[in-house]
């Protein structure tokens, strides 16, 4: 099974950025733990702060992978283009957020990804990624 995690803007700053919201662990350290936990899954990771690069990656792998775990971060609430990319591909996409976006600013209550996604997981910290990967295994 081949699954990719795609992270959007500012998630490269995990461990440094707002630790009270996002925790103190870097995503790279966390990703190593995911690879260890899901040894039978070919896990990949891609991060970009650029909307077009996220769309290009979704299009590139969206017909050949078994799953996409997508945390589009702030683009979740602004990017019709990313939502359209999710809708266009055949690989199932799970939308993930570390925080519960519904407990935050009102603009974060809107997602252009939720409707075309296969599922949405939010508010469980980095554990949200574990849950998304597990959803592809059953």
Output the CATH class name.
Alpha Beta
Mean pLDDT: 93
Cα-atom Rg, whole angstroms?
14 Å
Please tell me what the overall shape is: globular
Please name the CATH architecture: 3-Layer(aba) Sandwich
Question: Main beta sheet: strand number and arrangement?
Answer: 5 strands, parallel
Structural domain tally: 1
For this structure, the CATH topology is Rossmann fold
The CATH superfamily is Dehydroquinase, class II
Strand line-up of the largest beta sheet: 2-1-3-4-5
- Which stretches of 5+ consecutive residues score pLDDT under 50? none
Q: Tell me the span between the first and last alpha carbons.
A: 12 Å
Total E-strand runs:
5
Task: Work out the helix count.
Answer: 5
| Beta strand % | 15-25%
Order of helices and strands: EHHEHEHEEH
What's the helical proportion of residues?
Answer: 25-40%
Structure classification: alpha/beta
Binding site for substrate: 71, 77, 84, 98-99, 108
Function: Catalyzes a trans-dehydration via an enolate intermediate.
Protein name: 3-dehydroquinate dehydratase
Catalytic activity: 3-dehydroquinate = 3-dehydroshikimate + H2O
């Amino acid at each position: 099974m081949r699954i990719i995690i795609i992270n959007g803007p500012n998630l490269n700053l995990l461990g440094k950025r707002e630790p009270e919201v996002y925790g103190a662990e870097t995503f790279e350290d966390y990703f190593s733990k995911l690879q260890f936990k899901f040894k039978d899954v070919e896990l990949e990771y891609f991060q970009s702060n650029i909307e077009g690069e996220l769309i290009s990656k979704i299009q590139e792998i969206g017909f050949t992978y078994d799953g996409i775990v997508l945390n589009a971060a702030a683009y979740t609430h602004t990017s019709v283009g990313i939502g359209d990319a999710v809708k266009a591909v055949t690989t199932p996409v799970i939308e993930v957020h570390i925080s519960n976006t519904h407990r935050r600013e009102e603009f974060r209550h809107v997602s252009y990804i939720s409707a075309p996604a296969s599922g949405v997981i939010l508010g469980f910290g980095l554990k949200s990624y574990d849950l998304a990967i597990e959803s592809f295994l059953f």
